[in-house]
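Supplementary Text 2. Reproducibility record for the structural model of the 387-residue chain.

All settings were left at their defaults, and a single model was retained for analysis rather than an ensemble. We include the record here because the model underlies the residue-level annotations in Supplementary Table 4.
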Amino acid sequence: MQLFLINFPGLSNTSLLNLISPQQSDALSTQYPGDPLEFETDAWFYNEQIRAAVSRGRAVAWSPDGQHLAFVAALHSPNTDLYVFDVLTGRITRLTSGPYQTADLIWSPTGRFIAHTSTSDINLGIRNGPTLIVQGLWSADTYSGGVTRLGGEDTGFLQWAAPDSALIYSDTASCGRFELRTVNAINGRSTLLWPGPFETAALDPESQALLVEVADYVPLTSLAHLCPPSEPSGLYLVPPGQPPRRLADYSSGYWSYHAWSMQPPLIWSPEVGLFFAFTPGGVVEITPDGQVTPSRAESIPIVSPSGQLWASGGSESPLRILHGDATPTNVFPSGTCNAAWRPDEGAFVFADGEHLYSASSPDFRPREIYFSSHNDLCRSRLVWVTQ
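Retained model, structure tokens:
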């Protein structure tokens, strides 16, 4: 369990540090988590939480300017904490200390704050229950070193709503997702935007307009009194300081995830200044002031950095490149996932499970650049490395 820096273009690597202290490492099992030969004592399970936290997705995260690396490690306490490595000085700073494991690191747009979860239980596959039992949501200030509590138990992070403000929600087994609110990362002050249940949402950081998808949801009968009342299913725009407006019918967003869609069912695209959302009539484009227009994209598009090129596709629909009013360019029949534009827009990469492809401008003819026999490329996280 070490952290390495890989230098481009020579691909030489340097071991930065061990992510688990010798004392904690000695307490870890020699077997892999969940091995039936291991005796599952409480002490064993607690120690394995450390290994799971360090190796969990989003346990490392680069700052927006690429000068700082946030990471999870167990170096100074019997559980994991949040640390930041300064690339220029080589200095490592510990930002948090607490009784729980640290998980899911998300930098703010300016690189000042790091949102993170504290958890008492990361499911290792040996116990029934949720993947993560959240004890709290926090924000660490990399400037001052202070830590602000954004939310308590069963709190989820949706996005950064502003340079110093997070959009969060409550999430319980009995009520699902509800109570969308923004929280200031400096003073912890909260503003309620949407009290009732919802399925997914997106916010325009500039106008502060919020778009919310609401499903028909019936809570468990015995616990219905604990849940806030729900609005009728639909797509709602919540302008700042104004009551919500219902814009369209609702189309189940979970379909898009189960169908390997390349995008969530609702997004805010800063490249073109529009919301994109699924409805029963297809994908629509929505302006921050609530104007709804049918989209030429068959699925939620992946917009290029300039906003000029859109990629649209998924498991059921062909992958196409859209360019204004020109005839779409067919790239791949169907079954695509995990797609991204190259920063200069000269190429587009995507996967179909086992194969990774690159499609280059101007004809966007795909060519295979990688093969995985494990059919896992739709679950991998792809990032561009540029110099």
